Amino acid sequence: MIEILKQKTEVKIGININNRGDCVKLSNAILEVTDKELSYNTLRRLYHIVKGGKPSDKTLDILSQFNGYKNYQHFIDSFPYENSLKYQFESFYLLSKPNPTELVNFIIHLKKFSKNFTTILIQIIRELFYQENFQLINKIFNLDILKINNYTYDEVLQIGNSIGFIFRTKTTTTDKITILLGNSNFQDMILTVFVDYTALNSYYGNWIKKLLDIEKRPLIEVFCKCVLNLKNYLNIKEIKYKELYYEEKFHPILIGRVVSQKMFTSDPTISKDLKLISKLAKNTSNFNIEYYYEMILTALCCKRFDIMSYIIDQFSNVRNFNYQYSIHHYAQFYLMCSFYYFKKKDIENYELYRRRINENQLRLGYKNTLMLMLCILDFHTNKKEQTKSLKLYNEFSNVLSLKRLNHSFLIHYFD
User: Fold this and answer.
1) What integer best gives the mean pLDDT of the chain?
2) Contact at 8 Å (CB) between 318 and 353?
3) Highest mean pLDDT: which range of 49-63, 84-98, 165-179
4) What is the three-class DSSP state of 251?
5) Helix ranges (DSSP H) in 117-217
6) What is the distance in angstroms between the CA of the first residue and the CA of the last residue of the chain?
7) pLDDT band at residue 156 using 50, 70 and 90 as cut-offs
8) What is the C-alpha to C-alpha distance for residues 170 and 293, in angstroms, rounded to an integer?
9) pTM here?
10) Which one of 99, 124, 179, 215 has the largest count of C-beta atoms within 10 Å of its C-beta?
């Protein structure tokens, strides 16, 4: 923050502080504005023109007052908010201009200097999507700063879900968005993060089918085939891609997604894969629930209580996991546990896990599917509210429009 304060000072006085003469000018300006003295020698040390140590609190307070703040602490407290507003206003201005280069350069600058980069980037991309300016979105996602390894897991989720959710409300044909489907950063940051199971039979399923035709990266090819297999299973169609593979270097969720495919065909070799996943999940300082994320949803859709039992056993001795990091994963796990223990007539554990389910913690792309599953659970466990549960189930079923998730699926789930 000291360097930022020095930069603001240079902007305010209108010169770069590079020598003794510049420091004299700044010292006189500070005295005139604040009626407080800050010697040119102190300023020479502050700007590293001569050797010096850390600036004193008094120096920082006077310099902050010169810039219009009460003191240095006031500057620290105020700057992030002011900086965010400044960049937001600038982004809105550039979005209204016809020159895309200015906006692209602004985004590059923003990544270096703003802690609110992800929030402002999301606003920019969403606005461009409404404008259907896919050429410019593609240009932005081609930037090196949009590579997924530049972001934390939480930042990826924020960007992917915030931008991805717009697809449901803004109808866009596959042809129009093809340029983005071929962009590897867009694939990694958006398409494989906001996995929209609500739209398997509409835009998302169409985009994934198109992506499989144009993209040859093994990770993306495997991902697409897994999603299309799930779509076929839920539509009671033949599973097309049966010879899928995974490597240990794949993302844990993708590994779990590949293994889950064997539930669609009741492939007995899944037991071998489950043992390997158990080893991988426990081969870290924190138990990695990501390996089981897709398996939990698939086990629920396939009514595989044997797989549910196996997954629960893997969690039984876990004492060291980072809950905040995996909040969506554990919400899904609690739902699965509720199903399993109700099936086993273990009412005590059923009630324990049912209380833990927080609908707000279900990930957006999966939420409608999981809410439909929750309606099944409530329909069978709360006889007084069956009419309400049935109505909600039908609403989610209509939204998803998946043939397997019909009235019979609800009625006979626990048979």
Assistant:
1) 91
2) no
3) 49-63
4) coil
5) 117-130, 134-141, 153-164, 166-169, 174-181, 184-186, 203-214
6) 64
7) very high
8) 28
9) 0.78
10) 124
